[in-house]
Amino acid sequence: MAEVKTTREVVMNRAAIAAVFVALIVMLTPIYWIASTAFKPRSLATTVPPTVFFEPTLTPFAKLFVRRSQMREPVDQETYDAAPWWEQLIYDDGESVVRNRRSGEITPSGYWDRYKNSLIVSIISTFLAVSMGTLTAYGFSRFKVKGENDWLFFILSTRMLPPVVVAIPMFLMYRTVGLHDTHLGLIILYTAFNLSFSVWIMKGFIDEIPREYEEAALVDGYTRLQAFWKIVLPEALTGIAATAVFCFIIAWNEYAFALMMTNRNAQTAPPYIPSQVGSGLPDWSVIAAGAFLFLLPVAIFTFLLRNHLLRGMSFGAIRK
Amino acid sequence: MANVMTRLEPDTRAAARGLSDLTIRNLFIIPTIAFLIIFNVFPLLYSLWTSFTDFRASTTAPANWIGLENYRELLSDEFIWRNFTITAKYVLISVSGQVVVGFGLAMLLNRQIPMKGLITTLLLLPMMLSMAVVGLFWKLLYDPSFGIINYFLGLGKFEWLADPQVALYAVAIVDIWMWSPFVMLLSLAGLSAVPKHLYEAAEIDRASSLYTFFRITLPLVAPILMIAIIFRTMEAFKTFDHAYILSSQPTTELIAIRLYKMAFLEWQTGMSSAFAYIVLIMVVAITNIYVKYLNRAKAR
Cα–Cα distance between A234 and A240 in angstroms, integer? Predict the structure, then answer.
């Protein structure tokens, strides 16, 4: 379609493009600041004026995984030369790696354990929530259920509760049965939290698969279960993948339950990372390095999910 | 529940082979419902009971039934009312901020912009990342001496988080930054659904752009925008993560934070259960409105 553009429209469009770029810069600055701080030496993390251009270093990442102590006097050349590159980086910053006195082994920092906990809890709870959610969504999509809307509302309402409200009784119950500060305890909570989400999203995806596909299979002699397994599931695969990524992100980012239901053993990264900023002078570059590694998977997933974000964020209500 | 699950009209004859549709439906649905009842409804019933007691989880003293005493005390406590006022103010600031910024961004993006897909995805990043971890870094950004916000805005040593009068706005700004993309995403969907011929007709009629906006764009985007607003209101009402991390000022003590402190730092388990119930009723009320709008939007 040929459009005649007036000068005014062209100017308006240019202004809009400029405004979008300004907005983009403003919106991304906090994220850029985390990422760039992660590659700054400690001395440049909190300078006045702020350091924008600098030579990136991996020192914060080297420091992130090990326990360190401030050195009184510089390390002798021989030890320095014998040390691996990452330990040399730590020496360069005036700190040394804390080692076990007897075995000489490196003492790891708490970060990797928390990261591992985050992975375990998020992956298992995602798997459970998505598999149960898909089945339930199929049930609601294909069969008549009396009071269907009420059940769906009930399922959704469990998710709308503030975490603290659920956490008070759950804490007491977990303490009684010994699930406090365990992976299983968090997995159960996150599964329950994500289950309602996954039912709602998956119902949307399954509703979109034409019933005729299954009916044709049933006529061909498939049982209902076979039709579900061989026809519906493959068709729903994209939806299942998108739902899984969403559930993973939600569990991965969850903070309140993790703060209230774990102490040390099962603590995930979100409550751990802020706890590093105590009193005194926090080492922001190391905290940023930890945050960077923690945020990176979600940033990647956001790009993979980009076509499903609308559906996911609106609980499947808006599809486009 | 069993009663509800037994009636089913078989719409195919597949019931004759393998498991019946009825069995499959129950097998698929009941575990989820049961799971949610065990891990959501049952705990809530339990805390309903504790809300009528003076139970403290930090002691081994048995719980005494005190009836409605907790509720009476809470509702007459002026400090709790202050928490509600703070929360209402916070919700108002952050949701209206998100609507202005989010809808504004959507209007800007609803044109021919180079690399529109990439830009949209990049703009959506803040809402996908962990509120707790990203929120934490706003401490660094807000820092009065080396924070970049004061530096770039030329505000000198402006205290964002230490000043009790400003702290709530500072927390709300983080929320606006995080969730404007959400309003933007939904608004974009609404804007793209406005039929182009309406704009063409308006142009033929030489309608002013202001008139076009208020008479065509806004009414047609309103339902979807309403969903965004209610959803954000509900979420802002529950705000905990970044607010708790960023500020410990009494002026930023939102309901969720007060509740957390009461339950897990002061160990007033009975009292906090009662408080939780008051909050719960409010959340259920907002959720009801939300779902009504969702269904209406779906029906369109």
Answer: 10
Helices (H), B193-263: 196-204, 209-212, 218-237, 241-246, 255-260
Q: Are residues A100 and A121 in the same domain?
A: no
- The count of domains in chain A is 2
A51 part of a folded domain = no
3-state class (DSSP) for residue B65: strand
Task: Inspect the interface and report whether the beta carbons of A34 and B189 lie closer than 8 Å.
Answer: no
B298/A317 Cβ within 8 A: yes
Distance CA B73, CA B57 (A): 19
pLDDT in tens, A35-44: 999 999 988 9
For residue A101, what are the domain limits? 66-107
> Is A243 within 8 Å of chain B by CB?
no
Q: Quick check: is A205 in a domain?
A: yes
Given this structure, which CATH class describes domain B77-299? mainly alpha
Count of alpha carbons within 13 angstroms of residue A276, beta-carbon side: 24
**Nearest-CB residue to B146 (from A20, A48, A310):** A48
**Is B205 a residue whose pLDDT tops 70?**
yes
Q: Burial-class residue B280 by CB neighbours within 10 Å (0-12, 13-18, 19+).
A: buried
Touching A: B residues 68-87, CB under 8 Å: none
Tokens of A260: 């209230």
Pair (A217, A248) in one structural domain? yes
Task: Note the residue count of chain B.
Answer: 300
Q: Which residues pair with A99 in a beta bridge?
A: A106
CB crowding A63-83: b at 16 or more within 10 Å, else e:
bbbbebeeeeeebeeeeeeeb
Interval B220-277: pLDDT, tens: 998 889 889 988 999 999 999 999 999 989 999 999 999 999 999 999 999 999 999 9
Residues of A (28-67) whose Cβ lies below 8 Å from B: 28-31, 33-34, 37, 46-50
Report in angstroms the alpha-carbon separations of A318 from A204, A301, B59, B186: 9, 20, 49, 8
